[in-house]
Q: What sequence folds into this?
């Protein structure tokens, strides 16, 4: 499937290397997941009976049950005897799950969602950058500068997102903390979506600023300056949020 034919959520998943398998189970899972996130099935409501869902998707009961089990494992639904399958409140959903994040971006995130994501990044990536400044290898230091150069050479939002994601993956790895790297992996998909939304490729001045900010992180890490790495990472996250928020607000019908 070409990038042009993918939906937003599918493209974001592909950039992060998490392309859903194209079998009946994944198709039903994707459609039900998107419908729940979009609000077609409200929180605390009961999903339609299995017979109705089987008619809608045209799959076997086994395929449907597997999709429902997967949604339950993600904290989105809960089967109840003699009542049916209830849609759980959003606070119960596993927002670190790659599919759940893809479905949010498939239906269109808002500024509040992106701001929450930025707050998580600040809580994780600033210290990750500081640790990387103390523990990075020479190879990792060079790779960070290469990623920054690739961001500057990007000619599309997808290329920029891939280079940006690679940069932040290397920072997490260079921290030398396996928990830090695992946490970073959990939010990769959301970060990819944020990078895609906020890509400055179409505006040379913004692209130059983004590349410069990432070079500052890379240089601080290479030279072992932990405090500067923290500050530079905060700038990158703040600038990315500002670009994404501005883009979403400009597209809002209220404006």
A:
């Amino acid at each position: 499937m070409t990038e042009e034919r993918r939906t937003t959520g599918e493209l974001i998943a592909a950039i992060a290397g998490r392309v859903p398998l194209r079998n009946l189970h994944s198709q039903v899972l994707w459609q039900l997941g998107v419908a729940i996130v979009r609000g077609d099935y409200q929180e605390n409501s009961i999903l339609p009976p299995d017979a109705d869902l089987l008619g809608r998707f045209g799959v076997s009961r086994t395929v449907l049950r597997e999709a429902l089990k997967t949604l339950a494992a993600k904290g989105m639904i809960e089967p109840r005897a003699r009542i049916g399958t209830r849609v759980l409140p959003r606070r119960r959903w596993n927002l670190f799950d790659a599919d759940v994040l893809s479905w949010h971006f498939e239906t269109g995130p808002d500024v509040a969602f992106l701001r929450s994501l930025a707050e998580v990044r600040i809580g994780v990536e600033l210290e990750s950058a500081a640790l990387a400044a103390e523990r990075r290898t020479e190879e990792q230091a060079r790779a960070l500068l290469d990623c920054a150069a690739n961001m500057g050479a990007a000619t599309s939002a997808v290329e920029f997102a891939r280079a940006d994601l690679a940069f932040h993956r290397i920072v997490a790895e260079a921290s030398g903390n396996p928990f830090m790297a695992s946490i970073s992996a959990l939010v990769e998909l959301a970060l990819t979506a944020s990078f895609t939304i906020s890509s400055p490729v179409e505006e040379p001045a913004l692209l130059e600023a983004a590349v410069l900010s990432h070079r500052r992180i890379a240089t601080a890490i290479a030279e072992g300056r932990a405090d500067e790495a923290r500050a530079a990472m905060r700038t990158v996250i703040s600038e990315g949020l500002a670009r994404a928020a501005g883009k979403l607000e400009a597209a809002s019908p209220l404006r």
